[in-house]
């Protein structure tokens, strides 16, 4: 299609420089409407929240090592790039005492573990060792719960984090989450109906993503707000108290939509 000829009247300065274009009122309203839609889409895809308002995602390597029985203190220390003597000095304990904690010879007092957690920048619960259980099925279940909770946090990051909003990434993460949850349901593990809530959340997330992909300009902004509501539900994020301790119990933000604004 050939470009439209510029027939608008131009108002020029005394030097001949074009200053204004006279546009018909009906065309002006159309241009304003298009501009507003563009701004809405831009706001939806570039929304930012403060990193302080977000929970740190647990790297997959950390999740798997702790689930396999490695010392959480050692795993997080190495994740932070600290030597044992550096962490011991920062926590106010001896390197020998830290070594005993990392090797499981000593549990560490509450005060000591609180200090270590502060030095590593993680919640105290993240330093709790995986439940010792010789039953392979129980260990696999604990690891699966850890992956489910890590995947939920991944979806939250994709929805309210600092990355550009990507419906494809959200859909892929939801599919992985659904696969893990369905496996536990097949094992008849569903404390307090937690996994039912997870699956309902996945279903709604998938529906909202499909809606967004169907008409991104009209629905991107409202879809992101709806997704924030889904991922912030406590029943979706965290199992009941009788579920195995497989990851952190960081409190859930009560109003992520306001935080995103």
Question: What does it look like?
Answer:
The protein has 261 residues and is mainly alpha-helical. It has a domain at 134-261. Helix content is 60%, strand content 3%. It is built from 12 helices and 2 strands. A two-stranded antiparallel ribbon has the order 1-2. Helix 4 crosses helix 5 and helix 8 (167-186) runs antiparallel to helix 9. The two termini are 41 Å apart. Mean pLDDT is 77; it is low at 44-55 and 249-261.
Structure summarized in a few sentences:
The protein is mainly alpha-helical. It is 60% helix and 3% strand. The protein is built from 12 helices and 2 strands, in the order E-E-H-H-H-H-H-H-H-H-H-H-H-H.
Please specify the SSE layout and strand pairing:
Blueprint: E1 9-12, E2 18-22, H1 25-46, H2 60-67, H3 72-79, H4 84-91, H5 95-102, H6 110-120, H7 136-160, H8 167-186, H9 194-214, H10 216-231, H11 234-237, H12 256-260
Antiparallel strand pairs: 1-2
């Amino acid at each position: 299609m050939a470009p439209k000829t510029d027939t608008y009247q131009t108002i020029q300065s005394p030097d001949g420089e074009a200053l204004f274009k006279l546009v018909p009122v009906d065309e002006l309203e159309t241009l304003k409407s298009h501009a507003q839609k563009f701004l809405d889409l831009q706001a939806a895809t570039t929304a930012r929240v403060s990193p302080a308002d977000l929970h740190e995602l647990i790297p997959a390597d950390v999740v798997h090592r702790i689930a396999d029985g490695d010392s959480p203190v050692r795993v997080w220390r190495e994740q932070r790039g600290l030597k044992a003597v550096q962490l011991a000095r920062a926590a106010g304990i001896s390197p020998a005492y830290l070594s005993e904690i990392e090797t499981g010879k000593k549990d560490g007092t509450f005060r000591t573990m609180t200090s270590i957690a502060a030095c590593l920048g993680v919640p105290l619960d993240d330093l709790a060792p995986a439940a010792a259980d010789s039953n392979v099925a129980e260990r696999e279940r604990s690891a699966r719960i850890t992956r489910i909770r890590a995947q939920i946090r991944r979806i939250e990051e994709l929805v309210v984090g600092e990355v550009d909003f990507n419906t494809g990434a959200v859909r892929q993460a939801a599919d992985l989450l659904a696969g893990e949850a369905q496996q536990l349901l097949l094992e008849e593990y569903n404390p307090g109906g937690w996994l039912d809530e997870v699956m309902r959340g996945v279903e709604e997330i998938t529906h909202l993503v499909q809606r967004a992909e169907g008409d991104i300009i009209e629905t991107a902004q409202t879809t992101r707000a709806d997704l924030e509501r889904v991922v912030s539900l406590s029943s979706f994020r965290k199992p009941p108290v009788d579920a195995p301790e497989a990851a952190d119990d960081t409190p859930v933000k009560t109003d992520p939509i306001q935080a995103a604004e």
